[in-house]
Structures are given as structure tokens and as C-alpha cells.
Design a protein that fits this description.
Blueprint: H1 15-23, E1 27-28, E2 30-36, E3 39-45, E4 49-53, E5 56-63, H2 69-74, E6 77-82, H3 88-95, E7 108-110, E8 116-118, E9 123-135, E10 138-149, E11 157-160, E12 163-166
Antiparallel strand pairs: 1-11, 2-3, 2-6, 4-5, 5-10, 6-9, 7-8, 9-10, 11-12
Length: 169
């Protein structure tokens, strides 16, 4: 890539630029779960998006090097859990490589379609995977909602500037 005269090199497209910009973007925190022969898997995601209401579709990104990718790459269904501000510990557990994500103190049960459903979240969905779209070193997973519960109590957990945060009034 050639530099444009007068353009600050710090602003030329790079992984560091993308990270710096998105550190300034507050995002809701979710945990994605799936089932594999060896048991439940899951990871923390800040890339969950509502795609369509007719049909009801959501999407999320996952790195192809992530420990959960092999399960998500084969799963017919996934769980999407919107975390509350009281669940910073749960978000950290599911973000940590090598953690026993479904061991104590994580509370969960088998939900519809055999998908692991986390307890005490603000809301959860079980979705049928309809596409896995290559996107650089990630895959964009598109899934159709088949079950869910939006009735959890509390306020959402946010991710901003590289850490978990709460809404302020």
C-alpha cells in the first residue's frame, strides 16, 4: 500500500486501527453456546446483531482459530444469551481461553434442540444456523430464531475501551 502524502500513517487501514476505533464503540455482551459430542461449548461475543425480523435472523462473528469454532462450524443450532450487568464474571469466564466455562459457578441447563442455555441472563435465543459466511479470519454466522425468552431482570452488560461496563443514568 502506498502512503498518501500528508495522511497520518496511524490512520492507514490496519488491524491496530480497527481495534482502536472499535474500542470506542460500546457493544452489548452476549455468550454464544453450542453442543458438540464432547459436551457444551461457548464464547463471549460483542458482535451479535439483529439482522431481520421476517424471518427472525441474528448474526455473530467468530474467529476460525477460536476453541469454540469447531463446534459452531458443525452445529445445527446455537444459543445466544444477552448478559446483564451482574454477569461480568460469566462474560470473563467465557472470554478466557482454557477456562472450564460450564463448570461451577456457571449455571445452565439443556434447552430446546439440546442447546446449552445459561441461567439468569437478561434474554436468550435458540437459533437454527442458516449460513456461515467467510469474512477474513472470522466467520459470520447467520441464524434463524426458533425459541427464546426475553424476561430476565436487570440492565445490560456493555463492553467499551477493552473492559466490561454498566449503563449510567
Amino acid at each position: 500500500m502506498t502512503a498518501t502524502p500528508g495522511l497520518d500513517p496511524a490512520r492507514i487501514a490496519s488491524p491496530d486501527l480497527l481495534r482502536a476505533v472499535f474500542r470506542r464503540h460500546a457493544a452489548g455482551v452476549a455468550v454464544i453456546t453450542a453442543r458438540r459430542d464432547g459436551g457444551p461449548v461457548g464464547f463471549t461475543a460483542t458482535s451479535v446483531t439483529s439482522v431481520s425480523v421476517e424471518p427472525p435472523l441474528v448474526s455473530f462473528g467468530i474467529g476460525i482459530g477460536a476453541s469454540s469454532w469447531p463446534a459452531v462450524s458443525e452445529a445445527g443450532h446455537v444459543g445466544v444469551h444477552i448478559l446483564g450487568e451482574h454477569q461480568e464474571g460469566l462474560a470473563s469466564t467465557f472470554a478466557r481461553s482454557g477456562a472450564d466455562r460450564f463448570g461451577p459457578p456457571t449455571s445452565w441447563r439443556e434447552g430446546p434442540m439440546g442447546v446449552p442455555v445459561l441461567d439468569d441472563v437478561l434474554a436468550w435465543l435458540v437459533c437454527r444456523v442458516v449460513a456461515r459466511v467467510p469474512a477474513g479470519d472470522h466467520r459470520l454466522v447467520v441464524a434463524e430464531v426458533v425459541h427464546g425468552d426475553p424476561s430476565g431482570a436487570g440492565r445490560p452488560l456493555l463492553y467499551h475501551q477493552g473492559r466490561f461496563n454498566r449503563l449510567r443514568d
